[in-house]
Amino acid sequence: MDVNSWLEEILPKYDRLTDSVTSIARSLLEENNIEYLSITGRTKEKKNINEKITRKGYNNPQKQLTDISGIRIILFIESDTIKVSNIIKSSFSIDDENSINKDESLSSNEVGYRSVHYVCDLGPQRENLPEFAGLKGLKFEFQIRTVLQHAWAELAHDRSYKFRSALPKEIQRRLYLHAGLLEIADKGFSEIANEIDLYSKKISEQYESGNLDIEINSISLTEFAESWAKENKYPLKQMSQSTNFTELIRELRGFAINKIGDIRDIIPHKYAEEANKLQIKSNIFGLIRDWMIIKDIDKLKKEIKTNWVISDPDFEFPEQELYKKLSSPENYKKIIEYALREHVSDDEDEGDS
Could you give the CA distance from residue 148 to residue 145 in angstroms, rounded to a whole number? Predict the structure, then answer.
């Protein structure tokens, strides 16, 4: 078969394949709670395919070309590459002969390009489904890298001409020293991520045993709030893992709360019951700040000097009703005073702009 005619016929199918596998990969990682920087797919253009056929001397390109469709997965930490590799192995048919772990191919005294490559097809469970009609047996390639592996690949291979050619010996040596530093950092971040997971597990076990003598930090605070919400059937809203808890922890310390166990002293009696009646849902910030507002609004606003605004009593009725039910009369009066003052101030600022 004429190669150009074959490509004209097959490339639209590979376009469909690329889009389908990219979507499947994204769903698989999200279902398994694996964070990633990006998942991108590309289908090689005809001119690039012809160039590779010539460069490689392929005499049977229909079988020898395995990367017309390519999907690149960029992860944050190295240990996740193993998890993603296992997901791919269990979800697609792997062509072991053409798949490679570039990391394993490096000698013990070498550093350089590191990435896992899997050549796959859709496999028997998917290829006969109607949405994949015409894609049976077509190969595609996964590239799995960390952010730092990707940075090195981009510098040394894909884009920058400065690093491609044979360099003077001293410059080449320094280049590979820095590549080694990237590899060390990659492994270091992976180890730290593992330590965080172990710490989270330890905190969870301490909660279950009733030990709340735990330092307040973003991990322990999240574990406590989620545990409290589950125990009290409170619909806690999820937050991004990148959320910064520094300001909230500062506010808690202003209440002389330095240990997780101390938080219990400011949780209003029947808070979950009343909040659920009023159908109030909040995230960790809103939940814990509600407890502090109900406990002592003056401390928050005068001593700790928070910069967020209290619920507007003219519009946010459920929140104000909750404060009224659970605060002392004196504290509730001050909550209203602060709320009115802050919202009048906001209105005046808008009028000036």
Answer: 8
d(CA 204, CA 122): 40
pTM to 2 decimal places: 0.70
260 membership: H or E segment, kind and range: helix 260-263
Beta strands 36-43 and 100-101, pairing class: unpaired
> What contacts 241, CB < 8 A, 6 or more positions away?
35
Q: Which of 342, 343, 323 is nearest to 333 (CA)?
A: 323
Give the model's pLDDT for residue 132.
Answer: 93
Q: Which residues share a beta bridge with 117?
A: 100, 143
Are the C-beta atoms of residues 343 and 314 closer than 8 Å to each other? Answer: yes
Does an H or E element contain 71, and which? strand 69-75
- Short-list 195, 272, 290, 294, CA closest to 227: 272
pLDDT tens readout for residues 231-251: 999 999 988 766 789 999 999
The candidate with the shortest Cα–Cα distance to 37, out of 83, 78, 73, 80, is 73
